[in-house]
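Changelog entry: the Large ribosomal subunit protein bL25 record was regenerated in this release. Current contents:
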Amino acid sequence: MSTVLSVNNRETGHRSTLTQLRKGGAIPAVIYGYKLDSTPISISAKEFRQFVQKNGRNGVIPVELDGERVNVVVSEVQKCTLKDEVNHVDFLAINMTEELEVDVAVTLIGESVGVSEGGILMQPNLEVRIKVKPADIPETLEIDITKLAIGESIMVADIRNQVDFEIVNEDDHILATIMAPTVSAEDEEVEESVEA
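Regenerated structure tokens:
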């Protein structure tokens, strides 16, 4: 990972300053964590977007702050829902040798038996929280749903022993479930009239 993002210190307090930053193509942000006091910064919106597209949101991001290289991960992103633009980013400075807790997206792969039989796939939780060393953070947690039948679910308990890291969530944290197809009142009326 050779790309190092450069960040700039910024003044705090004035809303107009933040607006000017955003108009100038920068994102207001803050870095805090390992060996760092909370430091307000700004970062190029274009560089940040390119880095996330290339390395994913969960990757370790090396940044240059006051001439020093600091490894960070994205802790929180605030977005403007209307424009789908990033308004603010919280970066957590990390120690590369210590495990940390991060949220990782759950990706369902395969075609479920239950869905092919008319069931409805539900994914109540889109992320899991894991404890892992920064260098080993996966971009996504893939879960095979091929054998999942109608009325069945996959929970954290079912995959806990299949991954190389600790999952922080409880065993009953549901990741995928196949619901039975629902029959609407109109369909029932049609069926009744056909039978009559």
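The first helix runs from residue 15 to 23.
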